[in-house]
Amino acid sequence: MEQTARRKPIVERVSVQKSYDVLAGQLRDRILTGEIAVGTRLPSERELVELSGLSRGSVREAVRMLEVEGLVQSRPGRYGGIVVTQPDKKSMARFVGQFVQSRRLPLRMIQEARETIEPALARLAAENRSEEELAQLRALNDALGDPNLDREAFARLNLQWHSTIAVASRNDLLSALLYAMSHGVFAQTIDDAYDNPEIRAAVFRAHGRVVEAIAARDGAAAQRRMERHVVATRAMGRDDGRSELSLDPPGPD
């Protein structure tokens, strides 16, 4: 018996966007385009209910979504309310952290990202750094040369050195990406391998060579030396398949 050909339905399933998604989308677009400026106080929750025609629950959910994205902040008090804010590096770190953790990406992938981003940051830092930032890089590396540092102090100083180069690059996007990976950087350098005086001395020397290139404003040399340094850390770090990217990185703001 021949099978009857399946007919295409007259009406297909319609997907309707949730009301709070629509409201959040409208506000998000106006904030990101600058139509609603950073620092502006949005209408109160009750006013948003009246303006949008949505329920109080839908308005609260829309505001909550924007808060998670770092676009608004609910401030208490007489002069508080829902205030438009600018997403910062911590906002990006949270999203990148969620991406990495939800997919259980190994530390190796964070290391590969560092090998791409950090040499470019070093090149840009050589071109754009200030004298104050150069002095800070030298001071941080001098501090790293102290053989009496415990593992955590060494790891935090190392992270601060890398973060200072990122700031000196004047590239906010690359700097934010490095900040998002900062817990991975910290996790690598708090590893047992870095308790070895020879390895610490090698890090100190590698940093010194990068700083010399940045001081000379030699972008090509800074990029090349940073690439060698970051690639060398791959052999020292562990890669047990676990992600080491935190939702709350320990790096400086």
What keyword list fits this structure?
253 residues, mainly alpha, Arc Repressor Mutant, subunit A, Four Helix Bundle (Hemerythrin (Met), subunit A), 2 domains, two-stranded antiparallel ribbon, 62% helix, disordered C terminus
Walk me through what this model shows.
- The chain is built from eleven helices and two strands.
- It is mainly α.
- The chain folds into two domains: 19-84, Arc Repressor Mutant, subunit A (Orthogonal Bundle), CATH 1.10.10; 89-237, GntR ligand-binding domain-like (Four Helix Bundle (Hemerythrin (Met), subunit A)), CATH 1.20.120.530.
- The model is unreliable at 238-253 (pLDDT under 50).
- Strand 1 (72-75) and strand 2 form a beta hairpin.
- It has helices at 19-32, 45-52, 56-68, 89-102, 107-128, 131-144, 151-168, 172-180, 182-189, 197-215, 219-236, and strands spanning 72-75, 81-84.
- Helix content is 62%, strand content 3%.
- The protein is elongated, with a radius of gyration of 24 Å.
- Helix 5 (107-128) runs parallel beside helix 10 (197-215).
- The protein has a two-stranded antiparallel ribbon with strand order 1-2.
Give a quick precis of the structure.
The protein folds into 2 domains: 66 residues, Winged helix-like DNA-binding domain superfamily/Winged helix DNA-binding domain (Arc Repressor Mutant, subunit A), CATH 1.10.10.10; 149 residues, GntR ligand-binding domain-like (Four Helix Bundle (Hemerythrin (Met), subunit A), Up-down Bundle).
| Strands side by side in the biggest sheet | 1-2
Structural class: mainly alpha
First CA to last CA: what distance? 72 Å
What would you report as the Rg, rounded to the nearest angstrom?
A: 24 Å
**Helices and strands, in N-to-C order?**
HHHEEHHHHHHHH
The residue ranges in which pLDDT falls below 50 over 5 or more consecutive positions are 238-253
CATH superfamily of the largest domain: GntR ligand-binding domain-like
Mean pLDDT: 86
Strand share of the residues?
under 5%
Tally the helices: what do you get? Answer: 11
Count structural domains.
Answer: 2
CATH class category label of the largest domain: Mainly Alpha
In the CATH hierarchy, what is the architecture of the largest domain at level 2? Answer: Up-down Bundle
Which range best describes the helical content: under 10%, 10-25%, 25-40%, 40-55%, 55-70% or over 70%? 55-70%
Number of strands: 2
